[in-house]
């Protein structure tokens, strides 16, 4: 299973990296709206999604990412370039090593928000990844071990209230991503808000259901 434990361990053993420093260790925007097919395709790949998660820890080179992911450098370089071309990664610093400039890549934003999708006129299908599907797959082992902390609730609310609540949920997700790295376990945090066909009771003002 691919995870970011190895990179966290590398950070913890680096004397220049404190577990109390703000993560990541480079400047980036708090959020960025993604709305093109190119950006959505870049986010949809599981390997690219893992790379984005890893770079919330700190900036890293292609070599470091390849070592942690257990993939060839050429493969990781390709996926990094896809994310760079989509405007989701950038070079945040370089280091000279044996006459070669090593590039350290970082995210362009802490949070990528999916906005209104801008598709070509002949586009017929969605390329957006489903974070809940990824979270569900990741959580199978924790569920089997009775270590899954999860809850599901339904509420009939107006669209404007849903937008307000989602903004609060994103703040909580941002706070989770900013936590100083320590310990030996990488935890996943999933949050979602979506319309459903869940049944609901009529309003109390419905004359057919008033008490006599």
Largest sheet: 2 strands, parallel
The number of helical segments is 8
Q: Structural class, from helix and strand content?
A: alpha+beta
Instruction: Report strand order across the widest sheet.
Output: 1-4
Give the C-alpha Rg: 21 Å
- Tell me the helix content: 25-40%
Low-confidence stretches: 1-19, 122-127
Number of structurally distinct domains: 1
As for the CATH topology, it is Arc Repressor Mutant, subunit A
What fraction of residues sit in β-strands?
15-25%
| CATH class group | Mainly Alpha
CATH architecture: Orthogonal Bundle
| Average predicted local confidence, pLDDT | 80
User: Tell me, what's the shape?
Assistant: elongated
Number of strands: 4
In whole angstroms, the N-to-C terminal distance is 61 Å
Task: Name the CATH superfamily assignment.
Answer: Winged helix-like DNA-binding domain superfamily/Winged helix DNA-binding domain
Helices and strands, in N-to-C order? HEHHHHEEEHHH
